[in-house]
Design goal:
The structure is a single chain. The chain has helices at residues 2-23, 28-82, 97-134. It is an all-alpha fold. It folds into 2 domains: 2-94; 96-135. Helix 1 (2-23) packs antiparallel against helix 2. The radius of gyration is 37 Å and the shape is rod-shaped.
Length: 135
């Protein structure tokens, strides 16, 4: 940001001083030095900008890779959850171990809930049979 302010300052000085310096041939050397300073500052700023871009490029690539991995994981999990009939072993390479464990636990819990629901229905049936026998 400092470099950009330097460039703006030099540009403003150039615009204001150029008409004054062009009036006298003795001052042309000052105008030339001002132009050289402006050119040098612009080149330095551009070079630093390129260096900064080159320095952040690996980080950007790393973040893009991580984002793609997260997107892939999201789709793999969404597909696995949506296709409850498909066993987890069909696509384990796409899903991290922790996620596989969670999905396995989810499957076990769903099976347990189904068994408990069946048992509840059976108990309701037995209860209604006993009530009918008492009458």
């Amino acid at each position: 940001m400092v470099e950009y302010q330097n460039i703006l300052g030099l540009l403003e000085a150039h615009v204001e001083l150029q008409p004054l310096l062009l009036k006298s041939h003795d001052r042309l050397k000052d105008l030339l030095f001002l132009d050289i300073a402006l050119d040098s500052t612009v080149r330095t700023t551009v070079e630093r900008g390129y260096e900064e871009l080159n320095n952040v490029e690996p980080e950007v690539q790393k973040l893009q890779k991580e984002l793609q991995e997260e997107i892939d994981l999201h789709f793999a999990l969404a597909n696995t959850v949506a296709q409850t009939s498909t066993p987890l072993s069909d696509s384990p390479s796409q899903i991290p171990t922790k996620a596989q464990e969670l999905l396995s636990n989810k499957d076990v819990l769903e099976i347990t809930v189904l068994k408990l629901e069946e048992e509840l229905i059976a108990l309701h049936f037995l209860l209604s049979q006993e009530r009918n026998e008492r009458m």
